[in-house]
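Hi support team,

I've been running sequence recovery on a batch of backbones for a student project. Most finish fine, but this one hangs at about 90% for roughly twenty minutes before it completes. I'm not sure whether the input is malformed or the queue is just slow. I've pasted the structure tokens below so you can try to reproduce it. Let me know if you need the job ID as well.

Thanks,
M.K.
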């Protein structure tokens, strides 16, 4: 019996449990990949989710104050760096991430800004345009770049397009984060005391604000699509599915009055996600004739 191999397999399975519990959208997109690439993406997601839960309420619900939350986050980052160095961690989620990072070339150039953004959530409640840009880079764009490290190693990735692929990955990460800011606008301000969009008071949020934010998100999604063509076919399909699931959220948010959006979280129904997955697998572009459904996806 190989003790390290057995431990690593168990750690990777634990990462799969995390994505299955926290995200049906990303979990669904992962299942379009081959087994090895799927495990890598699950390993990345699990670490990101654990860090996110430290700052988004799980630690506070356990009775930790802000300083204790920061200590937990610092400890997680230090353990991640040790895992990157040694290829082993007693924290199974960190161990799984380290396996992927060492196999695909993910290093502290990506993990450091990620943890910096996570720390921002503990103490910073208001953002300027500059700090928001920095926060989105660390909290979301670098995650896209981590996933890109996995995809670039797949057979069929077109060589010589690293810049376009990186811009696409960052744009998609930024779009995902902004969608989440928008759909969580009420909860972030009321429950967590966070105001991500500079100068925007959720109490005064209106349809003009919403249109401006959605236009910005659509620009990010458009930029993300431009680079997908350079991915390997399997990676392109997975990324397109994740893109289209969030595009469905954008389309649904467009139909919800601004003040209703502040009061509840918009979701895409399970049957609609299944339809989107079928559309992606059959190669039908979003928005083409015969690709939409009544009520859920069409105004």
């Amino acid at each position: 019996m190989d003790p390290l191999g057995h431990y690593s397999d168990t750690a990777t399975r634990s990462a799969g449990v995390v994505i299955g519990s926290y995200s049906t959208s990303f979990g669904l997109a992962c299942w379009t990949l081959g087994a090895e690439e799927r495990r890598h993406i699950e390993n990345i997601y699990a670490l990101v989710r654990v860090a996110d839960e430290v700052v988004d309420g799980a630690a506070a619900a356990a009775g930790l104050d802000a300083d204790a939350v920061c200590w937990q986050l610092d400890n997680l980052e230090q353990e991640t760096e040790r895992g990157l160095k040694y290829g082993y961690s007693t924290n199974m989620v960190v161990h799984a991430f380290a396996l992927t990072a060492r196999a695909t070339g993910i290093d502290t150039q990506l993990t450091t800004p990620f943890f910096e953004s996570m720390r921002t959530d503990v103490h910073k409640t208001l953002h300027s345009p500059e700090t928001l840009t920095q926060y989105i880079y660390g909290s979301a764009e670098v995650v896209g770049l981590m996933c890109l490290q996995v995809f670039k190693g797949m057979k069929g990735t077109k060589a010589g397009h690293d810049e376009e692929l990186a811009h696409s990955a960052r744009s998609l990460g930024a779009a995902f984060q902004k969608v989440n800011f928008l759909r969580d606008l009420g909860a972030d301000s009321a429950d967590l005391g966070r105001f991500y969009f500079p100068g925007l008071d959720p109490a005064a949020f209106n349809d003009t604000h919403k249109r401006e934010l959605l236009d910005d998100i659509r620009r990010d999604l458009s930029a993300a699509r431009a680079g997908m063509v350079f991915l390997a076919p399997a990676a392109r399909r997975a990324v397109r599915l994740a893109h289209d699931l969030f595009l469905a959220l954008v389309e649904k948010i467009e139909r919800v009055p601004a003040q209703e959006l502040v009061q509840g979280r918009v979701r895409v129904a399970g049957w609609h996600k299944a339809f989107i997955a079928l559309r992606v697998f059959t190669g039908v572009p979003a928005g083409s004739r015969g690709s939409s459904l009544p009520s859920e996806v069409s105004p």
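--
Follow-up from support: It reproduced on our side and the slowdown came from queue contention, not your input. The chain has a mean pLDDT of 90. No action needed from you.
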